[in-house]
Amino acid sequence: MPERADVYFTSGADRVSAWLYRPTGSGPSPLLVMAHGLGAVRTMRLDAYAERFCAAGYACLVFDYRNFGDSEGQPRQLLDIGMELADWAAAVAYAHTLDGIDRDRIGLWGTSFAGGHVIATAARVPGIAAVVAQCPFTDGIAAVRAINPGTVARLTALAIRDVVGAVARRPPVLVPTVGKPGEVAVMTAPDAYEGYLKLVPKGVELRNEIAARIAMKVLTYRPGRLAAKVRCPILFCVCETDSVAPAGPTLRYAAKAPRGEVKVYPEGHFAIYVDDAFERAVADQIAFLNKHLKSG
């Protein structure tokens, strides 16, 4: 097993928890900063990815966002897009302070909602050497259009209640992050509930809930529009039948990235994390990283 240590860095006023994987070998290592998607935490199979990358010679810094998982932050389960982007910037800054890391070869790896965050971060934070965006959320309008209109209406009502409650300093109105079709949840595609559960380690209970106000913010978050400003190599791993982050807009945004590369998989949003699809995606990602991060 690769060497893994628990480390911490500060974002805002809170301590962010992370794993630091270090590869064997001498000399400064390239490093990937990694985090998960909407409402998800690093124990949901990000260790499987980091172990593969570490075995291939990459250090990995895998963190939980503030308000989630093992990181500090209140109120719990509150997803704030601006805060999460600040966490990415803080993680990159922390990576630059680590011994044994080649500061000119720091890359980003994000999946789902974080697939959008890494596009935005690479466009705004200087010095990123390469990016992997897996089944990335690139366009809030397209994502909302993929949801049942009745579910959207019920979510919106809860989101408004949550926003009003926040002004009065009441605790967040929580809704399930993922549910079955017809239920009120942020993700209710036919493959969402079972697919999400496959990412949760056996015997571990994770909170399947998130502050409802995110439903008001998702629509205006369109990080794919920043792909044209990403100057480093970026790999888009796109799922053809993605029910959460539709492939069409992502492919259009990817075409505008100056050094964009695309791999397309005949799977849905959650299938890419497990089994044969995981093996194929990781192999493609390592090949991309070897091409762009192995040498200075």
From TrEMBL:
InterPro entries, sorted? AB_hydrolase_fold (IPR029058), FrsA_esterase (IPR050261), Xaa-Pro-like_dom (IPR000383)
All copies of the Xaa-Pro dipeptidyl-peptidase-like domain together span 14-150
The reply to whether Hydrolase figures as a keyword in the UniProt entry is yes
Question: Source organism's superkingdom?
Answer: Bacteria
Give the GO molecular function terms. Answer: carboxylic ester hydrolase activity
Alphabetized, the UniProt keywords read: Hydrolase
Q: Which family does it belong to?
A: Belongs to the AB hydrolase superfamily.
- Name of the protein this chain belongs to: Xaa-Pro dipeptidyl-peptidase-like domain-containing protein
Originating organism: Mycobacterium pseudokansasii
